[in-house]
## 1
Amino acid sequence: MLGRTANGLFWMFRYLERAENTARLLDAALRMALTRDLATAEAEWRSVIATLGLQRAYEAAHEGYDGLQVWNFVLRGSGNPGNVRAMFGAVRSNARMARTNISSDVWEAVNENWMQIDRLLARPVGQGMVGEVLGAIRRAGTQVHGAFDGSILRDEGYHFARAGTFIERADSTARIVDMKYFLLLPSLSYVGSSLDTGQWEQVLRSVAGARVYSWLNAGQIEARGIVEFVVLDDRFPRSLAFCRNALRGCLDALASTHGTDGRGVALMREFDTRIGHLSVDQIFEAGLHEFLIDFLARNAAIAQAIAEDYRFHA
Amino acid sequence: MWGSMSAGQGSFDEMFDSAGNTRPAYAEYCRWYNEQPPEFLRRKNREADDTFRRTGITFNVYGEDQAEERLIPFDMVPRIITAPEWRKLSRGIEQRVRALNSFLYDLYHRQEIVRAGRLPERLLRGNEAWLANMVGFTPPGGIYTHIVGIDLVRTGPDEFFVLEDNARTPSGVSYMLENRETMMGMFPDLFSRVAVESVSNYPRRLARSLAACVPPAFTGGKPTVAVLTPGIFNSAYFEHAFLADQMGAELVEGSDLRVVEGRVQMRTTRGFKPIDVLYRRVDDEFLDPLTFNPDSVLGVPGIMDVYRAGGITIANAPGTGVADDKAIYSFMPEIVEFYTGEKPLLPNVQTWRCADKDSLGYVLDNLAELVVKEVHGSGGYGMLIGPTSSKREIEAFRAKLAARPENYIAQPTLALSTCPIYTAKGLAPRHLDLRPFVLVSPDGIDITPGGLTRVALKKGSLVVNSSQGGGTKDTWVLKD
């Protein structure tokens, strides 16, 4: 496979994942804003912008954190070149670039969803439409993944696509948890402060884990359990542990089809020995924020190593 | 339902005779059509558009926003050619393509045709597509034009003419294939009633044809074939990806390629891998920045040296564009006769070369009746269609023509044949042409039955180019 095609597959799935995660984040914030007072709502929208790293761009374009304004900025804002509409454009152009290495089913799923979402986001998204738009974005991800799983040869292309998915997903989950880490610090939960379970639930909802978590924990919402679930539970597909295991699988498969361990495999090994074995208590002890920052850096370094190992760029 | 049908302005209509009777080729199709409820046809017509959009069969329009992608309108009424008609056409096409290859070989070698006084030398010297560094070099297998598109027009029951030869990089074959797929998907019962020659194995034939032209450096095993595209913003990117996908070839861009150890190699995830045959969809001038346009980022620095040293096959060979020149076209009857020793089976359209004084005089006196074209032009740009132009346009063109007569040729305005298209008000005749696709390899010449039918969608219009609002039809060659 061409290095450029591998790059196309990798980024096609990164952008697809990013769009889906962004939709989930907005969905969770929307729900929070609808059920809380104005100040909480504003804080929530502010944290969405902060989680996405868009403070500067947003504040250059707008004053105040009003929901309508925030989701339009995130979804389609002209002052935000990385908006969701542009993400779908990038999904599609990467899919076109890798067209000879994806099936017609995958291509058509990408193209049809792009047509629909591009049309939905061509105009400002009002209160009445936002739910539908976010739903369409999530479904796009599901449809492309479904077509992909059902029709793609399990060779290197498959692993590049999955590597992109799990690197992006881990990045997103880590950022969401980091943005709320102060809510999840055990000291606060021991104090039994005014921070309510609704805020914690919010973290779970942003990573689509609220239902599963409460099913596993019989409705008990507490900070330590949430961190353990979102960071360490390798049964939950959006947890850091799950993403890391899946990524390790991709790296090993790529190494075996190519007959050589890349730098990515070495970085993953280092990752495993340094922070892979930590328990939730050890993580809290050393600092959740510090742990997440370290995680994000290692995740990004592995992405970079894959691009170099497999000649994504000339 | 057919009562209101009549062919426009004395043109030959391929579906109906002048009395309004269905011609035999269309008999079964028309029976089928008349059995379909009008609402069904309306719905299918809308569906066709959606199908093309969904599958992304689009082309980008030059000069417009990069994101701008358009559909080439598809008309769901097929264009039908009988088996005897096709046999005759394909004999003529084969003869012409054989002559084209011999001609190109001769031009870049001894130029016997010039020595024999059958072709003026100035036509070569003045030809922008002429490549001095192809002189004396013989491409692998002796093949110059691996893929040719011959544009044909029809004016009567037995009157077919060649309007243009596309020896450089003919496009449109993906539409031929997708049009058929779409028709079979929409109207499966139609294909059980009418026996139509299949076109779907074109990509396999293309792959085989290209693989038969390996360069001397080929080391055995399965030849590595790649399609070179300018990239996703090129107007024909869909076609490039489509063909690579269907052939099982890599789709490469200039940035993927590099000359390594005397071979053109592509950057794969496992390192550089040599390419044996490169089906390039990049024009000559962008192919090698070391040899041609130094600013080109679409090509591969050094590819021409590798080519000349036998390290790669380039299809079509650089320098074949010489034959697309319309001044050369006017000599095709002589060219066919010179190299095949036979009379041409397919006639040219009568052509006046404005470089000749007498012809120029005639053309200037009759501008309002003629079609005048630039010798290097393509895509329907830079031409004058006398009968549909205003006095002012004609006078403006007269000035251009007088300033550089050698840059133009003129042809009579042909009464192009028509075939009905589906419209909201029923069937309506529109003018059309036909581009059959021809594959050339050392094993022989292979013509896919049918080709791409382009149709003017505006009533009375003679311009069928997609860049100017033309559409396409599925083209059927009937089985015997």
## 2
Amino acid sequence: MTGGLDETLVEIAREVPAFPIGILLFIFGVILLGGMSAQKRKDGYSDTPMWAIIASLATFMVALMMTMAAGLITLAILGYSLALLILSGFWFFMSRGRNESA
Amino acid sequence: MGLIRTYTGLVLTALFVIAMIMFATNLASDNSATISIADDSDFATTQSQTEGNISQFYADANASMDALMKSTISSGDEATESGGQFKGGIGTMIKVAYSSIGNAFSKIFGEEFNLFLNVLIAMMVFIIGWFIYKAWVGRSPD
């Protein structure tokens, strides 16, 4: 009954090539900005590098899922999402923790 | 931040990069994906270079610890003469930083923007140098 559901996305991507990029940017933006604002409201501060790596990791995972269906994502977009993940990882691992002395 | 924190961050970044590329490659292989990150030659180069550099760090770290074990401090001295036990690994760490994030910078910002990466790495060399001085001599360069 649910067979061929991915065809809907593939057809949209065929007509609007920017659709997969828009989906990935939407996921990245929602997790980054949503996570930062929620943590800011709850704890009084937001750990931007942590939310950046969480958002880029989620985006990369969705991009990987998109590679299972032909015509949904290109190698270049997958490369961009991996590059974003690597730079977020570098930022996260090299950033100073909130309670860490200078 | 300090020498230990900086080196740990760079090593974890390198291991993270290798893990993510290998995960994406194996996921595509196991599920017969239509697109695989293994088809991107730049990331294949990133993986092999980072693996080589992080392996070299293993050798450098062992040599540095060996120097630390053999070093002596005379009574009244504030620092050892060579400080080799603190300097080991800096060259490898810079190569690790270049190989792990260099391609990611080029992908997003383009080849023309490599100046940004070069300046960033140069700044890291400067900071790591002062961290080594701080650990070796015991003075704070802040």
